[in-house]
Design goal:
By secondary structure, this protein is of the alpha/beta class. The chain is built from 18 helices and 17 strands.
Length: about 475
């Protein structure tokens, strides 16, 4: 019996090393980010029995052939032509250059004619999201990474079901991994009411389109094609609540009314078509979005930017990198997960050395410990260059907000990390209006008052074992 186990182990080990020998050249030829290539090569070479199956599960790029073919499948992406603004017409050199890069990278051009309300905190978000559902008269399109199985998740489903029973066309798209419990436990009332529920990229190879690794991290709630709630918030007790309860995460979002909703609607319909193969969605999907005479026809300058495996380039990354490079006064970053690539890290260090006020706001404690450790491995070099790092104290910080000078503000689903920039399906709203940027800055300043600035000398005295854990997490973070 023992000899049989030893023979099986030997065969398994030998097969692992043979596959590792075959896979390593393939991984190198895939031209991933250097950090990701090193992480995969190390994991496969050092522990092939684990690394090889893991690569086939989450590292392969087979699914990308299907995904690359999806964009524009429903023909809506050029539908928003009203109030378009040429990037060079944006109000500053920084915003003009950023808009030009985003457009060249594949994002729709900027639009004006929007009312944008910055939503700070889960109580305001709860009111905005549930209010938007109640307002809908023709259709509701909802898309989230996580729908939690808790009282808020159930209220959300019942609110959608109520509108479906009233004759409103309801479509709910959930990520198959982030919302796997909800898809099996709480969406049935919506289906019974006549609503449609779909899952994006199932994780198991029982489907033609599946992936355990490439996740749809976008958050969208659109009512009648006229108003949209979007940002970093998922649906659940952690993110939003009717009361300001202990433990409610700090998060941000925006409520948009106007021509920018067309681009957000087009993005949802493209994701819906990919998940369901329904290319002729019904409803008054693109209504007239012009404001009445004397209304806000030139306000709310913004640009809707989607990024992910379905894009040849990485528009959000390109836009963020451009804005960081052009900053002259400030770069303020709030992100729950901070694992930048070398280019973004160097860009921030360089900006601080140039005298730009670079501030990074992250949670003191995180729900993802490995990512938290990996992010801390960057702190020494950043602080040495002059970057100020603030740890948010009251609860977990989940806001994803960027403020560059008085010229560019970003709210969306993307973290400042490798996964968001290079793997996930993400959504960012780039704001170019002074009023909206000031609102983001006011929220950021309020968060700083509830944070502690990290002391470089004290942080540098942390134990060697902690440094080792941080650096190890940093090496292997591109895998996850």
């Amino acid at each position: 019996m023992h000899d049989g186990w030893r023979i099986a182990a030997l065969i398994l080990s030998t097969a692992g090393y043979v596959l590792a020998f075959i896979l390593i050249p393939r991984i190198i030829l895939e031209r991933r980010q250097p950090a990701a290539t090193v992480a995969w090569v190390l994991s496969i070479a050092l522990l092939p029995v684990v690394g090889v199956p893991l690569y086939f599960l989450v590292g392969g790029r087979r699914i990308r052939r299907h995904i690359r073919a999806k964009i524009g499948a429903v023909g809506y992406l050029e539908s928003s032509v009203e109030n378009r603004v040429r990037p060079e017409e944006l109000p500053s050199p920084v915003s003009a250059t950023c808009g030009r890069v985003l457009t060249a990278a594949g994002a729709p051009p900027p639009v004006t004619g929007n009312r944008v309300t910055v939503i700070e905190g889960g109580v305001a978000a709860y009111s905005a999201a549930l209010g938007l559902i109640e307002e809908a008269r023709d259709h509701i399109h909802a898309q989230f990474f996580i729908l939690d199985v808790d009282i808020i998740g159930k209220r959300f489903i019942h609110a959608l079901a109520s509108r479906a029973r009233a004759g409103v066309r309801v479509r709910l798209l959930l990520d198959a991994v982030g919302s796997w419990r909800a898809l099996r436990q709480i969406v049935q009332p919506l289906r019974k009411a006549g609503g449609e529920v779909a899952e994006f990229l199932p994780a198991l190879p029982l489907h033609r389109k599946w992936s355990a690794h490439l996740r749809n991290h976008r958050k969208l709630l659109i009512a009648d094609g006229r108003k949209c709630f979007t940002g970093g918030m998922n649906i659940g007790n952690r993110y939003m609540s009717p009361r300001n309860e202990p433990g409610l995460w700090r998060d941000s979002a925006v409520l948009i009314q106007g021509t920018g909703v067309r681009d957000l609607q087009a993005l949802f319909l493209d994701d819906w078509a990919f998940a369901t193969e329904e290319t002729g969605a019904e409803g008054d999907l693109f209504p007239d979005l012009s404001f009445p005479a004397g209304g806000e026809t030139r306000g709310g300058l913004l640009q809707v930017v989607a990024s992910g495996p379905d894009r040849t380039m990485r528009p959000i990354y390109q836009g963020v990198f451009t804005a960081f490079t052009l900053a002259r006064r400030r770069i303020w970053i709030a992100t729950p997960y901070f694992v930048p690539d070398d280019a973004i890290s160097t860009c921030l260090e360089n900006a601080a050395l140039r005298g730009v006020d670079v501030r990074l706001l992250v949670p003191e404690k995180s729900d993802l410990k490995t990512v938290w450790l990996a992010g801390r491995s960057y702190f020494d070099d950043l602080m040495m260059a002059g970057v100020k790092i603030h740890l948010y104290l009251p609860t977990n910080l989940h806001s994803k907000v960027l403020i560059i000078d008085d010229d560019v503000g970003v709210v969306g689903s993307s973290n400042v990390d490798i996964r968001s920039f290079f793997l996930n399906f993400e959504l960012g709203v780039f704001l170019y209006g002074r009023k909206e940027i000031e609102a983001l800055a006011a929220g950021f300043t309020a968060d700083l008052s509830r944070s502690d600035e990290l002391d470089p000398s004290a942080f540098g005295r942390r134990p060697r074992i902690v440094r080792l854990l941080e650096d190890t997490s940093r090496i292997f973070s591109p895998l996850f």
